[in-house]
Amino acid sequence: HDEAVDKVMSMLGENGNHAVFTPNSEIILAAYHDPEFCALLNSAELLTADGIGVVYASRILKNPVPERVAGYDVACGVIDKIAQTGHRLYMFGGKPGVAEKAKENLAAKYPFLNIVGMHNGYFGPEEVDGIVEDINNSGADLLFVCLGAPTQEKWICANRDRLNCHVMMGIGG
Fold it and tell me: Rounded to an integer, what is the distance from CA 8 to the centroid of its chain?
């Protein structure tokens, strides 16, 4: 967990943008049956094993990952760090009002956390350009995409070249 958080923090200081995905067993099974989705997952700069099933499977396949590292845990660890560094966070996804409630809860715990924008996960294809523009105009360093898998991974990869954030992380629905 700490190693993944440190890696994300390192990416925030690098040029370019970086994708972080946290596949669980279901996501890996979907990738097994869909070569395009598999390639998409493999394009990420960081993948963590979100589930003990992934850890056990890696051992069986003789390519063990050290531990389960859930996306939620990485996100919490990163929030803890960026609340001290001033990095800017944009939250994208969830039902209307969820990001606002999350911002309220996070502000109570981390008064110096810099949340620069949010958008719910209910949108049509015609709204994507506006969402990308809003994210870019916010000056976000870090983008949490919470659309559920595989939608969030596909959205990140489809829009990656247009986004100015240093890290785009899919963390669930």
Answer: 10
Positive/negative CA dihedral, 68, 94, 19, 13: negative
Q: How far apart are CA 148 and CA 86, in angstroms?
A: 27
Is 45:11 a contact under the CB 8 Å cutoff? yes
C-beta neighbour count of 54 within 10 angstroms: 20
Q: What is the pTM of this model?
A: 0.91
Each residue's pLDDT tens digit in the chain (173 positions)? 789 999 999 999 999 999 999 888 888 999 899 999 999 999 999 988 776 765 566 567 676 666 657 788 899 999 999 999 999 999 999 999 998 999 999 999 999 999 999 999 999 999 999 999 999 999 999 999 999 999 999 999 999 999 999 999 999 86
Residue from 51, 92, 55 nearest 70 by CA: 51
Which three-class secondary structure state does DSSP give residue 89?
A: strand
Q: How far apart are CA 63 and CA 60, in angstroms?
A: 8
Report the half-sphere exposure of 70 (CA within 13 A, side-chain side): 6
